[in-house]
């Protein structure tokens, strides 16, 4: 693999993604990894990420000079660049500034030298280009053996390279999209380092199928489908590997949007041939939600009922398998690589963890503890890779490209008590909004657009000849990269007008459409 050493501040994951976009496999490893630990992984190349620290700060993660003597190509980025300079005897000027935001700078490549091409990293790129740079310490002189290959007005040593040892460093962030030729810098490094470009979707599928077969053997497997892309792709992979040993459970809690349950029940099953058990739990969920208005209480009730419904179905499967002399031993989870990195987990060492789904008193005939081993076929993948795998496995487009939708569904988009009638109102309004956004071609450019029903608010309106006293719905279109922060999407006025006209005409009980123009923070994306 290409190992990306994580010096913090979320750059490492982005770098790992860019490496994969360049068709090479990458993994993020913690800054605390020793040189021996890094080399044990037999890396094709190593990238040292940016990070918020100053190399002069107390306790700042430093790079041991041994790393550069192992014959492994290394690219240092920003903090990694400075740490590299310091370790190899360059001069890093202390500015006392930490990294704050970034600025665009024009890169000025340094003259070609007599020894050959002046730059591996910048090969084939325009002599001046825009790069995203953050303020921190600055490298004042390159270590011995290195050539300075780029500079900016603020950073005279903005890149250095030692072609013989295949060691490289850049002060700017090639992994962010603001750096116009950033992806090319990363590709130039990888290809210059002879890292194979062999990370393909077909290869991922093949490898995972083999792993799943090895892990599962003849045992049976259960998987909960949520309607979202992760669980759908995870299940499809497991099905590709072990076929009918897999049974999927879909809990229809009645809080889904129009057409979603059908999408899972019909389109997904048709595309995959998966054995699906649908639990129709709408009544149960509505019963549990009756009288609740507090967001946390609603969420808790939905979560509780969900586990209950799922484990009931799982217990039935376990019992049925038992009668047939088989054993349900595994549970599929759609865990993605960012979750693994963020929870500090490692991909290697340790095979699988065990999830215990506790039983409840009200489910008859259930064993005290249902214990499953986890199958997590997406554990090494980023979201865009999961989508590519899903598409290659032939899943319906609408499922592969589905925007995020919260587990508690429409239950947290009705402000007030959730009732069947209110769900119907919101479902109709939501369907109109989604139809118009799709029609306008915006599905892939906006992150998501919750539609919220203010069920306890009424306002006076006039429609036809009469006075109305109806409810408002809120449009919450947002743009985001990861849902941690978001901005409200500037939808075209004509589109908003069309949505407003259609929703007030077509949805009984709704006489007003309002637009939420709050970013996150301070507002969350969902209203509850
Ligand atoms: P917030 O409202 O916290 O939402 O800004 C961030 C993102 O997470 C989604 N979301 C959820 N997803 N279960 C989920 O699977 C949940 O309980 C949940 N709550 C919020 C939300 O749609 C947005 O994409």
From TrEMBL:
Keyword Nucleotide-binding: yes
Taxonomy, superkingdom: Bacteria
Segments forming domain GMPS ATP-PPase: 199-402
Positions with a binding annotation for ATP: 226-232
One GO cellular component term: cytosol
PROSITE patterns in alphabetical order: GATASE_TYPE_1, GMPS_ATP_PPASE
Catalytic activity as recorded in UniProt: XMP + L-glutamine + ATP + H2O = GMP + L-glutamate + AMP + diphosphate + 2 H(+)
Catalytic residue list: 78 (nucleophile), 173, 175
Pathway noted in the entry: Purine metabolism; GMP biosynthesis; GMP from XMP (L-Gln route): step 1/1
Gene Ontology molecular function, alphabetical: ATP binding; GMP synthase activity
Subunit-structure text: Homodimer.
Protein name in UniProt: GMP synthase [glutamine-hydrolyzing]
Gene: guaA
């Amino acid at each position: 693999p290409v190992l990306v050493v994580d010096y913090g501040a979320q750059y490492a994951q982005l770098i790992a993604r860019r490496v994969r976009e360049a068709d090479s496999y990458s993994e993020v490893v913690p800054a605390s990894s020793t040189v021996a630990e890094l080399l044990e992984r037999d890396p094709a190349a190593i990238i040292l990420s940016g990070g918020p620290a100053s190399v002069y700060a107390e306790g700042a993660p430093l790079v041991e000079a041994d790393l550069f003597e192992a014959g492994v190509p290394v690219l240092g980025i920003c903090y990694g660049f400075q740490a590299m300079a310091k370790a190899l005897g360059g001069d890093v000027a202390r500015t006392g500034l930490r990294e704050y935001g970034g600025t665009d700078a024009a890169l000025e490549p340094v003259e070609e030298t007599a020894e050959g091409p002046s730059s591996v990293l910048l090969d084939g790129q325009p002599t001046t280009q825009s790069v995203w740079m953050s303020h921190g310490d600055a490298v004042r002189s390159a270590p011995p053996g290195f050539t300075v290959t780029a500079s900016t007005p603020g950073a005279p040593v903005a890149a250095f390279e030692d072609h013989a040892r295949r060691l490289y460093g850049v002060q700017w962030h090639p992994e962010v999209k603001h750096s116009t030729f950033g992806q090319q810098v990363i590709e130039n490094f990888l290809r210059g380092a002879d890292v194979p470009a062999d990370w393909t979707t077909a290869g991922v599928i093949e490898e995972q199928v083999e792993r799943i077969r090895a892990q599962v053997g003849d045992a049976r497997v259960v998987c909960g489908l949520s309607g979202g892309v992760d669980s759908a792709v995870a299940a499809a992979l497991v099905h590709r590997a072990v076929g009918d040993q897999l049974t999927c459970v879909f809990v229809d809690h009645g809080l889904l949007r129009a057409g979603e349950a059908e999408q899972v029940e019909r389109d997904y099953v048709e595309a995959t041939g998966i054995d699906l058990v649908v639990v129709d739990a709408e009544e149960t969920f509505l019963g549990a939600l009756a009288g609740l208005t507090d967001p946390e209480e609603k969420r808790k009730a939905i979560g509780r009922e969900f586990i209950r419904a799922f484990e009931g179905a799982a217990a039935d499967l376990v019992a049925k398998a038992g009668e047939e002399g088989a054993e349900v031993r595994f549970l599929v989870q759609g865990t993605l690589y960012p979750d693994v990195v963020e929870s500090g987990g490692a991909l290697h060492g340790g095979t699988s963890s065990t999830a215990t789904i506790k039983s409840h008193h009200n489910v008859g005939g259930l064993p005290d503890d249902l214990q499953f081993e986890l199958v997590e076929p997406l554990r090494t993948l980023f979201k865009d890779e999961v989508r590519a795998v899903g598409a290659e496995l032939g899943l319906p487009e609408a499922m592969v490209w589905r925007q995020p939708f919260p587990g508690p569904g429409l239950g947290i988009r009705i402000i007030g008590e959730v009732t069947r009638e209110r769900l119907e109102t919101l479902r109709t309004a939501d369907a109109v909004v989604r139809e118009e956004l799709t029609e306008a071609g915006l599905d892939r450019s906006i992150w998501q657009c919750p539609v919220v029903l203010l069920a306890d608010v009424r306002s006076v309106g006039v429609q036809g000849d009469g006075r109305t006293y109806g409810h408002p719905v809120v449009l919450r279109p947002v743009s985001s990269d990861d849902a941690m922060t978001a901005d409200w999407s500037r939808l075209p006025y004509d589109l908003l007008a069309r949505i407003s006209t259609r929703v007030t005409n077509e949805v009984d009980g709704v006489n007003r459409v309002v637009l939420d123009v709050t970013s996150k923070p301070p507002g969350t994306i969902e209203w509850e």
